[in-house]
Amino acid sequence: MSSLFTKIIDGEIPSHRVYEDDTTFAFLDINPRQPGHTLVVPKTEVDYLFDLPDGDYTALWRAVATVAAGLKQATGCARVVVIVLGYEIAHAHVHLIPSNDLSDVPFPPVDEVAQARLTETAEEIRRALG
Q1: Among 16, 37, 91, 93, which one carries the catalytic annotation?
Q2: What is the CA angle 24-70-57, rounded to 5?
Q3: 86 has which bridge partners?
Q4: What is the CATH number of domain 4-129?
């Protein structure tokens, strides 16, 4: 069954498209966190961003950069924040949120347990990377 984003890409569900090329599609989020909040998605339906084939992965980030530049110019924002969550819809996607201040975008508080374990965590990651 097609994901919600595939249905949007295929035109089965209307969207406010802002960009499209052979491998990517970008449209305004219907639940924006800031004016101009845009989603950039690969046309290849893959749940987890890092499972995308190399070519699609590269094309996605090229489209993200293109759309972010247009978004910054159109909104006059100081920065475009990039967020990849991936829990909401089982189709890889990148959120682009115009921002003028850190308070424009939700950011979790410092995890003090994680902070206390920085040395151990770094060692675990280095071991996993081989």
Answers
A1: 93
A2: 30
A3: none
A4: 3.30.428.10
pLDDT band for 105, please (50, 70, 90 cuts).
confident
Closest CA to 67 of 101, 33, 99, 96: 96
The amino acid at residue 115 is Q
- Answer with the residue of higher pLDDT: 108 or 17: 17
pTM of the entire predicted model? 0.92
Q: Helices in 14-95 by DSSP H: which ranges? A: 54-75
Please choose, from the candidates 91, 12, 6, the residue with its C-alpha nearest in 3D space to the C-alpha of residue 51: 91
State the Cα–Cα distance between residues 103 and 52, nearest whole angstrom: 32
Q: How far is 6 from 80, CA to CA, in rounded Å? A: 25
Beta bridge partners of 98: 80
- Judge whether 93 counts as a catalytic residue: yes
Give the helix ranges, DSSP H, for 1-130.
4-9, 54-75, 112-116, 118-129
